[in-house]
Design a protein that fits this description.
The chain has about 475 residues and is mainly alpha-helical. It has 19 helices and 11 strands. It has a 3-stranded antiparallel sheet with strand order 3-4-7. Strands 1-2 form a two-stranded parallel sheet. Strands 5-6 form a two-stranded antiparallel sheet. The N and C termini lie far apart (about 65 Å). The structure holds glutamic acid. Glutamic acid binds near residues 12, 45, 215 and 219.
Length: about 475
């Protein structure tokens, strides 16, 4: 592997809660950069304007900062190849698209959404794989020019060979061959002039002088498209490395339904970033038993991209707990430990804001731990008895918590106002009074029927912790409702 002037990047899309998978890929890139004295860069890929939000971008930055990884270029620190946010680079992409239109690597497509839908319908009915059928591929140049001049809505698509295969080398997978017939004529430029992920990603990797692209294996199938774009632009592709995804114990893809996946969940529960990085770093290196406890410097020293760990990346929470415990006990002085605890309790202002919420509810300060402790606790010890005093039956309580759990995922910005609005809307939709819907939630998030104001508490706990508590509540309630039938 050539490694002179290494420049690597993490390129998250700010479309959801920052995922531990992002930290995992970021760490690989960071170790790679450090190993070879290169640069590690952060780029925000927000070409999907409907799903990207400023709140999620801030969360990505905060979460990655919390991990302790540092980047030398990025939207927050600037750098010579900025801007580092794709939505601010819109005008930079057009000349590259034009070049591909000129040299036949891309074509205009005027197909309406209705036509594309009926095409997909027909493909489904015929049991064919979905993909653009090439309808606009052979339009005459004069027709294209006049339709574009007339302002007819259109996109630009990638022209893809119909025969043969795309053969390339991947730093992890080795030699890969993907038949061209399985590659779709990808949209490169959308009707609003914004590039799609594929176009922007390739142009930016080129303009930002990225030498090695290390990312999740879910992108391996996109490499042929990227290689074609590089080819039509007359550019040399970077070295590709596709890392195996982290998986649950049962080998299924790590998803928030099975395991908490948000970085913020792990920070809220009091995992040390060093322990999480140590845990993730073990996926990349080969070590003997007994050598697991490693600092970032030690990870860098042991990291060798030509000799990556062959074991799959199983997200084993017990191993993470074990490492975190060792970090807390063995790697921190008593003073450091206390400082970490205080920092952790202040995270997102939850201690200060929680105390303010509790002020009007206590007669003695000693009542604070049972009243507000749920804001810091790992879990609130839910049992069937926790829900025992509610007016709603276990089945109705379960219905409420399950509906709320699903609907809360739709909130884009997580704060007191949006949570309250959403819970009111959910109550309306369920045909129930808000005061019927909230008591089960009180119990689910705090473990008690008497606690701090619900909406504020949920905002302070954060989306990922609330999600986990509702999940546990659903498990307890499902068992209760089942037992009653
Ligand atoms: N924006 C993509 C993601 O969030 C980046 C993929 C890549 O690294 O090329 O997964």
């Amino acid at each position: 592997m050539t490694t002179s002037g290494v420049r690597v990047r993490i390129a998250p899309s700010p479309t959801g809660e920052p995922h531990v998978g992002t930290a995992y890929i970021a760490l690989f890139n960071y170790l790679f950069a450090k190993k070879f004295g290169g640069e590690f860069i952060l780029r925000i890929e927000d070409t999907d304007a409907t799903r990207s939000t400023a709140e999620f971008e801030q969360k990505v930055l905060d979460a990655l900062k919390w991990t302790g990884l540092t980047w030398s270029e990025g939207p927050d620190v600037g750098g010579p190849y900025g801007p580092y946010r794709q939505s601010e680079r819109k005008d930079l992409y057009r000349p590259f698209v034009d070049k591909m239109l000129d040299n036949g690597g891309a074509f205009h497509c005027f197909c309406t959404p209705e036509r594309l839908e009926s095409m997909r319908e027909a493909q489904r009915a015929a049991g064919k794989p979905p993909g653009y059928d090439g309808h606009c591929l052979h339009l005459k140049a004069e027709e294209v020019t006049s339709r574009v001049a007339a302002g007819e809505p259109h996109v630009v698509r990638l022209k893809v060979p119909t025969e043969g295969s795309c053969d390339f080398h991947d730093g992890v997978y080795g030699d890969v061959s993907i038949p061209w017939e399985s590659v779709d004529m990808q949209v490169l430029l959308k009707a609003d002039g914004m590039p799609t992920y594929h176009m922007a990603n390739v142009v930016d990797d080129h303009m930002m002088k990225i030498t090695h692209v290390a990312r999740g294996e879910e992108w391996l199938a996109s490499v042929p498209k990227h290689i074609l774009i590089y080819k039509h632009l007359g550019l040399e592709p970077p070295v590709f490395m596709h890392l195996s995804l982290m998986r649950n114990h049962d080998k299924s893809k790590l998803s928030k339904r099975k395991n908490p996946t948000s970085i913020s969940y792990y920070s809220a529960l009091g995992y040390l970033p060093e322990a999480l990085m140590n845990f993730l770093g073990l996926f990349f290196i080969q070590i003997a038993e007994g050598e697991e406890l490693l600092t970032m410097e030690e990870l860098i020293e042991k990291f060798d991209p030509d000799n990556l760990s062959k074991a799959g990346a199983i997200f084993d929470i017990q191993k993470l707990d074990w490492l975190n415990g060792r970090w807390l006990r063995e790697k921190l002085t008593p003073e450091e430990f206390v400082a970490r605890v205080l920092d952790w309790a202040q995270e997102n202002d939850r201690l200060v804001e929680g105390l303010k919420l509790a002020q009007s509810r206590v007669t003695k300060l000693g009542e604070l731990p049972p009243l507000a402790g749920f804001l810091l606790a790992n879990d609130v010890g839910l049992t069937p008895a926790s829900f025992g005093g509610l007016k709603t039956s276990p089945a109705e309580t379960l219905e409420i918590v399950t509906t709320v759990q699903a609907d809360l995922e739709k909130i884009l910005e997580w704060n007191v106002t949006t949570i309250e609005e959403e819970l009111r809307a959910i109550s309306d939709r369920m045909g129930k009074k808000l005061r019927v819907v909230t008591p089960p939630l009180f119990v689910a998030v705090s473990g008690s029927q008497r606690s701090l104001p619900l909406f504020d508490s949920m905002a302070l706990l954060g989306r990922s912790v609330v999600r986990q508590r509702l999940k546990v509540a659903i498990q307890v309630l499902t068992a209760m409702a089942g037992a009653q039938n």
